[in-house]
Amino acid sequence: MTAAPPPEPLATRIGTVGILGGTGDQGRGLALRLAAAGVPVVIGSRVADRAAQAAGEVSVAAAGLDPRATPVTGLGNLDCARRAGLVVVAVPWSGHAATLAPLAEALAGKVVVDCVNPLGFDAQGAFALDVPEGSAALQAASLLPGSTIVAAFHHVSSVLLNDVTEASFDSDVMVLGDDRAATDRVQDLAALIPGMRGVYAGRLRNSRQVEALTANLISTNRRYKAHAGVRITDV
Amino acid sequence: MTAAPPPEPLATRIGTVGILGGTGDQGRGLALRLAAAGVPVVIGSRVADRAAQAAGEVSVAAAGLDPRATPVTGLGNLDCARRAGLVVVAVPWSGHAATLAPLAEALAGKVVVDCVNPLGFDAQGAFALDVPEGSAALQAASLLPGSTIVAAFHHVSSVLLNDVTEASFDSDVMVLGDDRAATDRVQDLAALIPGMRGVYAGRLRNSRQVEALTANLISTNRRYKAHAGVRITDV
To answer: Tens of pLDDT along B203-233?
Structure first.
């Protein structure tokens, strides 16, 4: 009788996570926190050199957060999409469709996590933009017919993600999707970040309001000088 | 030198609160909690007799929750709108426009708190309905040009509101509106219910997603067998 091997740690079971738009604030912050949790992360950018530079900076910051951090790689978006098993879309809304359309083949068969918020800004603050497909996540589903789309990480403050003095997050992540295995995997991913928790919050057809709610949190931030997040109670 | 009189308690400073649709689950639950907190409450219904019956039942339940509870009155919707200084709209979405349109004069100059969620339901659960005006609260603003509209109380579980074994609520109330004095007053109203807190969450133009988010919480409730609520963190 031989002893069973120890279970593979969750961070490596998750597989390599690609982050399209990983040089922006949201993508960089997620890369930092996932790398610190031991997840292999590839930052993608339109310009591979810029991705490589960000990856180097994030690697140093992640190692400072947690000595078990994995080094981060930087690649062009297409290579990032090919390399990763699960891909987070963290590009600005203005580049959403143009970034995803050429990646349909590279992303086929993979879980794509959309955290993009289609928002406009004027003198009165932020407001939700109308998206012909219904939401950013539904646009991703339309552009990437071979991928499994999950919507998540909309409400996590990029300021707090990038603040290395913040060891833990008082925030849940609403996870939406039509495929149970995929939403479970993204909930597991969220749970790797200390203090964070992934909570299932419905099908993709209900993603518009979750994206748009970010406009409300921006209003809350202005009123209270805060970095507001959301916790779901009784769960 | 005379001593200053003691400050008027917040519950009486709020004034008489009318609840249109106060015989439904949401309205009845809010009436119960506000009456228990000492707020004078008038339940409104299309049928005055039904309002009076609900008022009697709620008065008994409120007195059981808190001996300082105020008795609840029941009236037809028009008399309820006339009597109250602040009116909560808790009718089903299907009756929203028809209830409010004839009350424009009675509600002029008053704060009207809309907590209606325009939702549809099918085999896959709840989903957000499109509203020509943009949201239930924006429809109220269009139908009641002389009133000050606030959107609030969308995510408070009516099951928990009506459960007299629940003494306290682990839930925030997102309060939206374009008039600071009105949103402050509704935040004060929410804070009268133990455990509840009113958090400013933007202008009325951002009310659609707050109403629609109730569809997500219904999905969360089904998955986790819960009565999900929302807390805003870092505020």
So the answer is: 999 999 999 999 999 999 999 999 999 999 9
Residues 139-198 of A with CB under 8 A from B: 157, 170-171, 174, 176
Q: Rounded CA gap, B81 and B115, in Å?
A: 16
- A41 forms beta bridges with A17
Could you give the angle at the alpha carbon of A38 between the alpha carbons of A32 and A43, nearest 5°?
Answer: 45
The residue type of B10 is L
Using the Cβ of A216 and the Cβ atoms of chain B, whether some distance falls under 8 Å is answered with yes
Element at A119 (helix H, strand E)? strand A119-122
With 0.90 as the threshold, say if the pTM is over it: yes
Contacts of B226 (CB under 8 A, 6+ apart): A234, A235, B220
In the block, which residue shows the tokens 């926190």? A33
Nearest CA in chain B to A196: B233
CA distance linking residue B111 with residue A128, whole number of Å:
25
Count other Cβ atoms within 10 Å, centred on residue A136.
Answer: 27
- Core vs surface per residue B137-168: b (16+ CB within 10 A) or e: bbbbbebbeebbbbbbbbbbbbebbbeeebee
The answer to whether the beta carbons of residues A170 and A156 sit under 8 Å apart is no
A234: chain B residues, CB-CB within 8 Å? 157, 170, 224, 226-229
Query: Over the stretch A20-43, which tens digit does the pLDDT of each residue have?
Result: 999 999 999 999 999 999 999 999
Distance CA A136, CA A97 (A): 9
User: Crossing angle for the helix pair A136-143 and A208-224, nearest 10 degrees?
Assistant: 140
Closest CA to A17 of A115, A99, A102: A115
B111: confidence class by pLDDT, cuts 50, 70, 90: very high
Compare CB distances from A127 to B126, B206, B218 and report the shortest one's residue. Answer: B206
* pLDDT beyond 70 at B2: no
| Closest by Cβ to B216, choosing from A171, A202, A217 | A202
Q: What is the pLDDT of residue B167?
A: 85
The pair of three-digit structure tokens given for residue B219, joined into one six-digit string: 């999905």
Four-residue CA torsion sign, B118, B121, B124, B130? negative
Please tell me the predicted confidence (pLDDT) of residue A11: 77
At A10, the pLDDT band (50, 70, 90 cuts) reads confident
* Residue B118 amino acid letter: P
Helix B25-36 × helix B48-65 angle, to 10°: 50
Q: Is the pLDDT of residue A186 over 70?
A: yes
Q: Which of these, A86, A202, A103, A84, lies nearest to A145 by C-alpha position?
A: A103
